[in-house]
Each structure stands twice: as structure tokens, then as C-alpha cells.
């Protein structure tokens, strides 16, 4: 699978949660995952469940780190 979208979406997730983490929006983690899903659908990619779990985990991890820094710093 082409990993062109994972890095930009993970960075977007980090920055979104870094700047909007104090608002405690629960959708901050879902928006980047939705963008990544739109990319996969648009490109016609059908990755295996293990790859999706890994990619979503990276996106959630980046968002969680951004949220933590945004709320505690």
C-alpha cells in the first residue's frame, strides 16, 4: 500500500489536537481518520485489517500526543 497519506494525516492530527486540544472536542481524533479513509476510498486502495489498524493507531497516537501537549503546556 502506498503510504503517501499517512504522514500528512498524522501531522494534521497532531497539529489539530495541539491547537484545539483545550476545547476538549471529541471529534479531533475522528476528523483525521475520516480524511485518511476518504483518501483510501478515492485512490481505490483496499488494505488489510492489520495495515488499517497500524495506520489508525499512528494517527490516534499523533493526535493524543498533540492533545496532551495542547492541554498541559
Spell the H/E element sequence: HHH
Nearest-integer average pLDDT: 84
Largest sheet: none
Structural class, please? mainly alpha
Fraction in helix: over 70%
Number of DSSP helical runs: 3
Q: How far from one another are the termini?
A: 36 Å
| Beta strand % | under 5%
Radius of gyration (CA) equals: 12 Å
Short recap of the structure:
73% of the residues lie in helices and 0% in strands. It has three helices and no strands.
List the helices and strands and how they pair.
Blueprint: H1 6-20, H2 30-43, H3 49-72
Word description of this protein:
- The protein contains 3 helices and no strands.
- It is mainly alpha-helical.
- The protein has helices at residues 6-20, 30-43, 49-72.
- The radius of gyration is 12 Å and the shape is elongated.
Quick tags:
73 residues, mainly alpha
